[in-house]
Write a structure and sequence with these properties.
Elements lengths: L5 E9 L5 E9 L8 E10 L1 H7 L3 H4 L9 E6 L5 E5 L14 E4 L5 E2 L6 H23 L9 E3 L5 H12 L4 E5 L5 H6 L4 E4 H5 L11 E6 L3 H9 L1 E9 L13 H5 L3 E4 L7 H11 L12 E4 L4 H9 L6 E5 L5
Parallel strand pairs: 8-9, 8-11, 9-10, 11-12, 12-13, 14-15
Antiparallel strand pairs: 1-2, 3-4, 3-6, 3-15, 4-5, 5-7
This protein binds NADP nicotinamide-adenine-dinucleotide phosphate.
Length: 329
């Protein structure tokens, strides 16, 4: 038996026949990767990518055993500084935040802005950074709040809901597209001016250039939805492509780009460069700080994660699930 400290973690393993099992267990800190900075994790969160890692998807998780969790917030063990880590290789393919300790390269570590608790940081997490990058791309494209309606697809999910809230906070007229008919009131409370069924995005979107509806869009669905969004944008629109829950292949012609000046902005939050990341986290803690996030937050322990993972896999998850590893600072 090892005499190094034991920690609680959610571990994904495979037996000799390749059968994957996943769940909470105890590991020792000497099993953690040999990296520069050890962080005592207070809160982590659940993102779509984590559901793939938890299922043992090797393209996400890399080699097994694996600890998922692309987000973590806590304190540096060596000096007590308050930090957060999202993306880079955390949880995919490196060992991630669903553990009481992580070890990561120094350049992955972001100082938590003053006043942003570990819990509040994880209410945002990768979903919040992604929403912030999408909103920044829309603003860089000169789309203004009075340019017209901004579509957000997958609006009750993590990225979608935080995009709705952030765009509304900045004065945009947000149209939320959802498959959940019972969540319209919640979407309005989070800032949506109008709610449409997700099928409506696909309607009247035939032909290389269909009716010009959206001044901008944040899309987490991909596939046919993103294809339709590109065809139904107004001149000079920005479409921020964030996700793939509905498919990876898109069908497009060059016409929206050449005849309407549409910008397709790819969002890669995992690879967001350090200085831009720091700037966006500072904004999220200050001028872009969002109210009402407790309404869309579920707190779970490692033992309760499987239920939330199942909901997200089925497309039934709402808002943000944050994972408690220790008491908050
Ligand atoms: N590019 C990046 O840096 C980045 C960062 C984070 C996440 N992502 C990606 O963004 C996507 C969303 O991530 P998330 O963490 O927000 O996940 P999430 O919380 O599960 O949200 C996804 C939402 O999409 C909708 N949806 C689910 N299945 C669908 C389907 N088959 N067709 C149409 N809509 C569907 C649902 O919303 P409604 O019921 O309201 O329609 C669901 O709540 C994922 O593909 C993820 O990999 C990308």
């Amino acid at each position: 038996m090892s005499d190094t400290p034991s920690i609680n973690a959610y571990l994904v393993t495979a037996d000799k026949d390749g059968h994957v099992t996943a769940g909470p267990t105890t590991i020792t800190t000497d099993q953690l990767p040999d990296q520069d900075i050890e962080i005592a994790v207070e809160w982590s969160s659940l993102n779509f990518k984590d559901t793939l890692a938890a299922a043992g998807n090797r393209r996400v998780a890399g080699d097994l055993p694996h600890v998922p969790g692309i987000d973590a917030a806590g304190t540096v063990v060596a000096d007590g500084s308050k930090v957060l880590v999202t993306g880079y290789g955390l949880g995919a393919p490196g060992w991630g935040g669903w553990a009481e300790r992580i070890r990561v390269p120094a350049n992955w570590v972001c100082v938590r802005p003053e006043g942003l608790s570990a819990r509040a940081a994880m209410q945002l997490g990768t979903a919040g950074l992604t929403a912030a990058m999408a909103v920044e791309a829309i603003a860089l494209g000169q789309v203004e709040p009075d340019s017209g309606p901004v579509l957000v697809t997958g609006a009750t999910g993590g990225v979608g809901l935080l995009s709705v809230a952030l765009l509304s906070h900045l004065g945009f007229q947000v149209v939320a597209s959802t498959g959940k008919a019972d969540q319209h009131e919640m979407l309005k409370r989070m800032g949506a001016a109008e709610i449409i069924d997700r099928d409506e995005v696909l309607r009247d979107a035939d032909g290389p250039l269909a009716s010009a509806r959206w001044a901008a869009a944040v899309d987490v669905v991909g596939g046919d939805t993103l294809s339709a969004v590109i065809r139904t944008t107004r001149p000079q629109a920005v479409v921020a492509a964030c996700g793939l829950v509905g498919g990876v292949d898109i069908t497009a012609t060059v016409y929206p780009f050449l005849l309407r000046g549409v910008t397709l902005a790819g969002i890669d939050s995992a690879g967001c460069p350090g200085p831009r990341r720091t700037e966006l986290w500072n904004r999220l803690a200050d001028a872009w700080a969002l109210e009402g996030l407790d309404e869309i937050t579920q707190e779970v322990s490692l033992d309760q994660l499987d239920t939330s993972i199942a909901l997200m896999r089925n497309g039934d998850h709402i808002g943000r699930t944050i994972v408690r590893l220790a008491d908050d600072d």
